[in-house]
Design brief:
613 residues; alpha/beta; TIM Barrel; 8-stranded mixed β-barrel; 5-stranded mixed beta sheet; 23 helices; 15% strand; elongated; EAL_dom; EAL domain-containing protein; membrane; transmembrane helix; Rev_trsase/Diguanyl_cyclase
Length: 613
């Protein structure tokens, strides 16, 4: 089309107006050249996707028809100029171009038919309007030849399709048994829900890589686990959850580069193998995480989940499949606990943490909880008078082999070792005993972990101990953190409601650290909100005070008491008082102390403020 159009324009250069022989063909030829360059570029695997192919063929049909009509209309305009030779050239241009395009579109009969009909139809109408008998005869002659060519083209295409079908059927019969075996093997290594490789394929590939790996070869394996997937199943049903997994699986496959594989290992966990170093693997994992976090519309519902990822590199992390996977799993565990929503790579720091946790777990297994566990108490006071209104119980573990262990490590180890309920109940017994020794004007706060809230047996055991004691339940307050609500806020709500029915009160600790703050305030049966200690440091600047005041007003609008934590200087205490906070807690007021020291301070109120134990 481009060559023929250029020649036709050349023969009319001195006859037709300049734009008609220069500008118009230049535009159409440029479009054709661009289209040709697009077709000439190398074909990638993505270009062979069925959906992509269908879309490209549809565009070919549309563009072929549009360009053909554009060219023939241009030729009809040129036909207004020149003598019989130029008119004959126009007719030849139409005939040669339409026949050439038909043969070029052999693979797409629909496009060939539309091009022929549109071009010849336009040409015949033009000749009829011009009342040029010779041109009309030429048009009819070209139409008859074109009709024969289209008939041959259709028969050729149908014969080709039939032959190909026959060959496929013949080959299919010969390879039926072999194909069936291959299909069974493929199905055995394919996840039935998402259609992507499954756990068996993942580990078989990993073991094969380890067997063939050269000393200087590097590859990375990863684990991606969804966050907040269980609420989707619980709220919208398993059908929505399954559909969500299918969409996520396809997104991951779409982003998976040629040097990587992605597999569903089970539930909402996916595996990744990238034949690249840590930086390249981390880029792939982060791209997948961002894609997973995009909302998915399922029917009339828009759902979204988060995800965390863990990576381990061969050979620097491990050289065996089991150890490599375990290290990846630990990196994922660390991401979900400490850096939720991020990608964590296994490192020497995590190696040290593993060894520390193993030592702590071993010490906890053999620990005498009654002898090694204790509580310390930190007062909560009025900001105006520093009069104590209550104390918060803080767990302490003094191991004979490891020394003092932080409460965070104690709770994490207890959950891993399956002793979380036992430790919580042992500490609660100590707290109830201490509560009976404190003045009746003081209340006591006891911390519950997310594991406690999701364990109905632990809640039942706490209620049994409350019923068996003769303490005033109105003096007891259970503290929970926002992070403990992430797993299952509905279960937490039920557990807290059971506790509150006994007359105890509920406090939300570390408020403002993120997650589900506003939903927590509205949904949970709360009495007190404790502002996270990170806000106390911002009492000294104007923007910080405005933010903290806004949080305080929000809490008060819900008729909840408010405590600001982390008061470590006198200026912070004064600023908290000026900001309208009536209750405060922190090292400036008092450090955590033993029960005996607490009772001693209660008896001796000669100092202006509480001092450290």
């Amino acid at each position: 089309m481009s060559v023929n159009a250029a020649i036709l324009a050349y023969t009319h250069r001195n006859l037709a107006p300049g734009p008609l022989v220069l500008t118009v063909p230049a535009i159409m030829i440029t479009v054709c050249m661009i289209r040709m360059l697009i077709w000439m570029r190398p074909v990638s695997a993505r270009d062979l996707d069925v959906t992509q192919v269908e879309n490209r063929l549809k565009r070919t049909v549309f563009l072929g028809t549009v360009l053909s009509v554009a060219y023939v209309c241009w030729a009809m305009m040129l036909d207004q100029y020149g003598g019989p030779y130029e008119h004959g050239h126009v007719a030849i241009f139409v005939a040669v171009t339409v026949l050439g395009c038909i043969f070029c579109l052999t693979f797409l009969p629909v496009a060939a038919f539309l091009v022929a009909v549109s071009v010849l139809g336009t040409f015949v109408v033009y000749c009829f309007v011009q009342k040029a008998e010779v041109m009309l005869a030429i048009a009819l002659n070209i139409s008859l030849v074109t009709a024969v060519v289209l008939k041959i083209l259709r028969d050729y295409y149908n014969s080709f399709v039939s032959l190909e079908k026959s060959q496929r059927e013949l080959q299919g019969e010969r390879r039926q048994a072999h194909t069936l075996s291959e299909e069974n093997a493929r199905l055995a290594q394919t996840d039935s829900l998402t259609g992507i490789p499954n756990r068996r394929y993942f580990f078989r590939t990993l073991e094969s890589l380890l067997e063939r790996a050269r000393p200087d070869e590097t590859f990375t394996i990863g684990l991606i686990d969804l966050d907040r997937f269980k609420p989707v199943n619980d709220t919208h049903g398993h059908a929505h959850g399954d559909r969500l997994l299918q969409v996520i699986g396809q997104r991951m496959v779409h982003l998976c580069p040629d040097n990587a594989i992605v597999a569903r290992l089970g539930g909402d966990e996916f595996g990744l193998i990238v034949m690249d170093g840590p930086e390249g693997a981390e880029r792939v994992a982060q791209q997948m995480c961002r894609a997973i976090q995009e909302p998915v519309r399922i029917g009339d519902v828009l759902v979204s989940v988060g995800c965390s990822a863990g990576l381990a590199v061969y050979p620097e992390t491990a050289t065996s499949a089991d150890l490599l996977f375990d290290r990846t799993d630990f990196a994922l565990y660390h991401a979900k606990k400490q850096k939720r929503g991020q990608c964590v790579r296994f490192s020497e720091k995590l190696e040290h943490l593993i060894r520390s946790e193993q030592a702590i777990d071993a010490a906890l297994h053999s620990a005498d909880l009654t002898q090694e566990l204790s509580l310390v108490y930190q007062p909560i006071v009025e900001t105006e008078t520093l009069k104590p209104l209550g104390v918060e119980c803080l767990a302490r573990w003094s191991s004979p082999t490891l020394g003092d262990i932080s409460p965070e490590l104690l709770i994490a180890s207890a959950e891993r070792a399956g002793r979380a309920r036992e430790i919580t109940l042992a500490l609660f017994d100590t707290a109830l005993s201490a509560l009976q020794q404190l003045p009746a004007s003081l209340r006591m706060s006891f911390n519950l972990s997310g594991h406690n809230l999701c364990d109905p047996d632990t809640i039942t055991a706490l209620l049994d101990r409350l019923a068996a004691s003769d303490c005033d339940t109105g003096r007891l307050l259970f503290e929970i953190t926002e992070t403990s609500l992430i797993t299952d806020i509905d279960t937490a709500e039920v557990a807290l409601q059971r506790l509150r029915e006994t007359g105890t009160r509920i406090a939300l600790d570390d408020f403002g650290t993120g997650y589900s703050s506003l939903s927590s305030l509205h949904k949970l049966p709360l009495d007190i909100v404790k502002i996270d200690r990170s806000f106390a440091a911002r009492l000294g600047d104007a923007s910080g005070r405005r933010l903290i005041t806004a949080i305080r007003n929000l809490v008060r609008s819900l008729s909840l008491d408010c405590v600001i934590e982390g008061i470590e200087t006198e200026d912070q205490l004064i600023s908290a008082r000026l900001a309208g906070f009536t209750l405060a807690q922190g090292y400036f007021i008092s450090r955590p102390m033993s029960l005996s020291c607490l009772l001693e301070h209660i008896e001796d109120r000669s100092t202006a403020r509480w001092s450290a134990a």
